[in-house]
Design brief:
single chain, about 90 residues, mainly alpha, 2 helices, about 80% helix
């Protein structure tokens, strides 16, 4: 398989993985409250919010890692085409 289609396939797969992780994280965060005032009678809501925060905290490093890998792959694609343009003008 030639390099360019393989490069685009890897980049596309990374973007799809990043999008899936982003959608999953967004689905988790939609039920999270920004600010709530709880007293002792709302302990079940406090436990629910804590579980949402724990799930988001587990996903966050994976999301950041996927963002970094996708950014590096995007940079590789851009650098490849910049070098291709430079080589065409030599």
């Amino acid at each position: 398989m030639p390099f360019v289609p393989m490069m685009w396939s890897v980049w596309g797969a990374l973007v799809l993985i990043l999008a899936a992780i982003w959608i999953y994280r967004s689905r988790l965060e939609r039920d999270e409250e920004d600010q709530i005032f709880l007293d002792d009678s709302f302990s079940h809501e406090q436990a629910e919010q804590a579980s949402i925060l724990a799930k988001v905290a587990k996903v966050q490093p994976v999301f950041k890692g996927a963002m970094i890998v996708t950014a590096v792959a995007t940079l590789c694609v851009v650098v490849y085409y910049v070098f291709d343009v430079v080589n065409q003008f030599k």
